[in-house]
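HOLO CASE FILE
Compound: zinc ion
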Amino acid sequence: MCEPLSFVWPHIELDEPLFEEAFIRRWGDDAFLRLRHAGILQQAESADYFLCPFCDDGHAEEVVSWESEAGIRRFAIPCPENGRVMLSPEQLRQWSVSFDRLVSLLAVGLGLTGEVSEIEPRRLWRLGKVSWQGGLRDVLFATGFDSRCLLAPPPDVGKYPSAIVLLPHAKASSVNWSHPTPSAISLTQIVSLGADGVEFDHSLLIPMITEADAVATQAAQSQMNLRELKVLISREVKSIQAHELTDDVLVRAYVQEGSYRKAAEFLSRETGQEITKDKVHRAVQRCGGTTALARGGDSNSIVRTVASQRRDRTKKIQRRPEGKQNQ
Ligand SMILES: [Zn+2]
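Model generated. Tokens follow.
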């Protein structure tokens, strides 16, 4: 038996999810009835246009309606092959998602405290607060991160740095987040529709939040390193000539950007002068090469490792016996 919510999640990201009766019937009666019973699907306005059920070319026509002599409302579309194609009111039924109902079911399913509120229309909701490691955290539900969305831009969840952000469909790792990166998890794998509402798989939920927090912390660290690096560059450019950028800055830029070329482009942008990738390459080599950097972990410890290696080397050179210096 298919999980009813799995039919709904991919469409929730869209601006106005609207399902035709025939489309929903393909999910199976069980899924449809359960979604309807839970109040997640609600009847919307009948279709204005309808795909001809008789023709293979899939022509859609505007629905015309009139009242018969017996006082009954009739519906039809014109078809070039079959003339007037009569339609029943059931065929024209459409269904939409009740977001109010869905977000309240999610809040109940998570056992959150506090009120559910819509922060940005059809894009961002606060579901309530959850106890987490001795404190309380906001839980948000956000849509609009799917590339198929055309209307409003996705919400700026970066404004809620300590919140847990639930995404209906989009994978957190595939979203191009603005900064700071939130702790975001996708609901598709951990939520199901039970007899009493939405149920969460708590055994998966907690590790997923922990992992999402780790991803967010890593992104914040990287962002902080980038800011720190920009400050260092601007200081060096102001105090000395850009062509005298220290190895520390050149190596940090390499670690931040991930390649000699990108580091050179970044430094050229930041200094307003041309910094070649050879210059970056030479600095990395002087500091022990890429293998030494890869051992470092985060860029701060890399730079510390590099700096201490350089001091060691200086000492070795100084300690070299005088007699061997000119060999
Ligand atoms: Zn037709």
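CASE NOTES: Residues 99-218 form one domain. The two ends are 81 Å apart (CA to CA).
CLOSED: yes
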